[in-house]
Amino acid sequence: MSSGLPPELMPRSIPEFSYVAPSTVAEAISLLGRYGSKAKVMAGGSDLLHLMKRDGMPEVPEVIVDVKKIAEMRQLDFEPAGGLSMGALVTIGDVERSDLIAERYPLLSQASDQISVPQVRNVATVGGALSQQVWCPFLRNALKCWRAGGEICYATLDGADNRYYHSVMGGDDCYAVHPSDLAVALEALDASVVVAGPYGTKTMRLDDFLPGNVWAANLLQSHVLSPTELITAVHVPPPASDTRYAYMKSRMRNALDFAIASVAVSLSVEGGVVTDSRVVFGGIAPSPYRDLGTQERLNGATISATLPEEVAGLALAEATPLQDNAYKVDVAKGLLKEAILNLSA
Amino acid sequence: MSSPVVGTSVADVRGKERVTGTAQYTVDLSRPNMLFGAIVRSKYPNAKILRIDTSKAESLPGVKAVITGKDVPPISFPPFLSYDLRVLAGATDSYVRFVGDEVAAIAAETEEVAETAAKLVDIQYQPLPFNLDAETTMQPGAPDVASSLGFPRNVQSAYSPLVMTRGDIDAGFAEADVVFEGEYRVPPQAAASLRPFSCLAEWDGPNLTVYNDSQVIFVRQGELAYLLGIPTANVRVVSQYMGGGFGEDNLYRFIPLAAILAQKTSRPVKMVMPQDYAFEGSPNKRHAASFIARLGAKRDGTITAMDLQATYDKGAYLAGGSSVPYVGARAVFNGYRVPNMRYTTYAVFTDNPPAGAFRGYGGVQSNFAVQSAIDDLAEQLGMDPTEVHYLNCIRPDDVLEIEGEQVDFSQVGGSAFMEAIEKGKAATDWESRWSPSGAAAAAGHVRTGLGMALLTYGFGHKPDTANVSISVRPGGEVEVLMGTADLGGGQPTTISMIVAEELGARLEDVSVSLGDTNLPAAPALGSFGSRTTFITGNAAKLAAADAKQKLLAAAAGMLGTTSDQLGTSGSKVLVSGSSQSASFSQVVQSLPGGVSIEGSGEYVHTAQTSKSGFQFGACFAEVEVNEWTGKTVVKRLVMAQDYGRVINPRAAEGQMQGAAMQGLGYGILEDYSVDETTAQSTTRDWLYYRVPTITDVPEMVSIPIESPDPRGPFGAKGAGESMIICTHSAIRNAVANAIGVRFTSLPITPQMVIEALKANGGK
């Protein structure tokens, strides 16, 4: 199918594909059922089009199912009892600019504000953030690794440049880190994901949805979606009272960059004592990394000047860095220290 | 009387069409019947081409031509630029020598067909061992990269080693109280222009026209004539708007390839390179380089000996910039009054893409070695580094030997180093804020540091003759013709201002035509190396003076007085001591059959002037280094820079700021990475090759220092390279001040900071 653009305006290097744009979830599921693995879902397109241009897929999709016209996936609702419901098409920019979210879920605002650049935030979606491909420079520069139909992880070869975007917490064939900031913040808020499929819909915990490395149709992916499924919404439970939040991210430049490491921390404090906490690291593992050990050390602890060092010093002891990325563990611990320091003030 | 033009801030005369989108960049051009080109590139850094099968590509509907090495002239680019690079690999042998080496080219009806055809060209390679590191290339037993090019070893003979000396280096070390030795290295850097590289080639009978955003239209014209074996007069090169002009306009194979394909198909051919070409394969990244620096000094900080050994990685071909290492050497001699100096340069072949010209041209690399070494020496001496620089930098009336010639700095505007250091220190409150262990007394994991570095750059290198002609038209318009292109740094604005000032015209009456070899303007080398203001500016001033004298003579007859009673202002001729005046328009119309008044100016930029133009400056950087995350943030840059008399302060400040940001990127962000196994770059786009974003830009304070060069137009000097020479060094020294770690390579990454602090037993 031709796009009808004059030749000089045609996008470069994108092979031909057909394009369908369903207007309901049911229609989308029916199309996905028909095309199966020949189809790819597109929302904002910031991930998919990059992969297609940079030869980052084993084969280009024959059909693009553009879900942007599905109005029921655009809702953003809050109920005091039920919490926040974000349609999968809500953009990162919507999250960043929402007063409702800023007031009740500041962690999401903080994380969104640190994603990429405004142009990308205005097209990239919540659903896309959770279902995107990794941004490993080898994969995105056409080197055929596990995720592109090859049988190798270039990041683990001797002398490979694995300094920025590869796991310090081990891998399962693939060592790329999950790139999403939003997923890290959502995991710290105990979010769940609504998935539609031929069977109807189901709700899953985010950590079950995003385990890291999953084999599907002979390829590795980060999430558990099958080609016939679609993420339609994300639910976040009502915010707890007396809880403070911090999202810290360190990256090379201050925009248009992925995390070297990030951390989302929620801390409930009563009378100077931590009553509950969640600590999730980003940018260091194939999925958002919930640090239960650190949570245990925090819970019941008294806020003090030495608490950040005490807690962060013991965090991530189980790390298994690659040749050149051990410093990412230090960065992650440093961010945890900064987060606890800020939240203790 | 109207106020002077020179010295006031003026908006770029071609700014409006740029920001409103009416400017036609090369990539915007289109022709009916136009074909699109695509290029097949090597994925191997070193390989023998065993077989090329183009049949599948040729049989694809819409493909009009496929060419390989056997279809291009078996000669290299002109010796001025290179003596080994052919238009396609395989033209005279069967080797590819870098990832991105051009092997075949296609012309087709659409861009998609051309790109698809490029994928269908079937090439069988025999991969060969490769070497991406310049220093290992020099070791015995390394793969002999260059032997098939006819060079004795991997070291380029013409410049290896190039040795420059002053005084007696051994005597200098003998009288030293302390000797400091350090090793430093800098990575490649991509200019990362926003434009896609592009050209449009069309033939009309024997005549070729090429549209290309080129800094060097006459060089390009000569290059195409030479490669195609046609008279220079048959080649026209047009360059109207640059989408980036940082020197990377050199040795593009896609331009002659477009011309050859257009000739073969008898149709216009447009070539647009993909964005990743700017990061991989383009022959014009900054040379990676490594240095061994030895300094001998007295206890009081007086440097008695400075000895540097430099190794520049030329990549796979001697493409362009064979003088890059040479200019890097000169930049050191142009900076310090040290009596005994030696600089030894090796330029070495590797299997990397060819390196070439890029803003700062050799000086950026050597600056890092010298400015780091002096900072490190100051620490060893227990001195404030500004004092060591102040003691040893060239002074306004110094007479110093540079390449065997005595340069009297008092005759070229004097050195502005001391003033730059004084003003930079004042603006950073250096005396009260700086201490050997950082700038802020407060403890904490975010450390603040102050650092500085000096810059010197010899502007306008290479002799040339510039011609400018001026017509004052019957309507009063002042039309200026010049033989170079608009580099994007405000050249037409600067030239317009010089003409307006000298002629007494209103700036809005002046227009400039340039960027076309068919204009009746004499050829000139082009716009590079901070040369246009000085060289073309001098010719423009002479042309304006010539036109003014003719205007006054004509007006004298008309107004019934003599020339010496007349002056000009606001596009009018004024009579001294009278309210009588005549507009330029009236004067021209009064002439019998008066079409226009013509003025012309020629400025000869001699071998002597081309080696004695100097910019001087100092960059002071304030950084914060987070010891927990390893991240360096540049908070403030104070830039004290001598441009001589400043023609357009706004443009000069723009040059300073833009150059500083490229330097900041080089210092802490731009981390060009090549996978050692595959030799493929993994930093081939804007995401992974991190140029600074607006959020990375610090507060910038510009302090112009006016140390006029009496030979420049109104005392002006070149302004283009400026802060790119030293910003990365200033940042490095500020980081050293903040955390006590003296890094010897760039960019300074969080990994380096964290690992160094751990190694120091730190936090």
Mean pLDDT of chain A: 94
CATH class call of one domain in chain A: Alpha Beta
Largest sheet of chain B: 7 strands, mixed
Helix content of chain B: 25-40%
- How many DSSP H or I helices of chain B? 18
Average per-residue pLDDT of chain B, rounded, comes to 92
Helix segment count of chain A?
12
Query: Segments of chain A where pLDDT lies below 50 for 5+ residues?
Result: 1-11
Distance between the termini of chain B: 67 Å
Structural class of chain A: alpha+beta
Give the class of chain B from helix and strand content and strand pairing: alpha+beta
Following the backbone from N to C, one meets helices and strands of chain A in this order, namely: EHEHEEEHHHHHHEEHEEEEEEEHHH
Measured on Cα atoms, how large is the radius of gyration of chain A?
Answer: 20 Å
What fraction of residues of chain A sit in β-strands? 15-25%
What is the end-to-end distance of chain A? 59 Å
CATH superfamily of one domain in chain A: CO dehydrogenase flavoprotein, C-terminal domain
**Which pair of chains has the greatest number of interface residues, and how are they split between the two chains?**
A-B, 40 and 45 residues
> What's the gyration radius of chain B in Å?
27 Å
Overall spatial form of chain B: globular
Quaternary structure annotation: heterodimer
Query: Roughly what percent helix of chain A?
Result: 25-40%
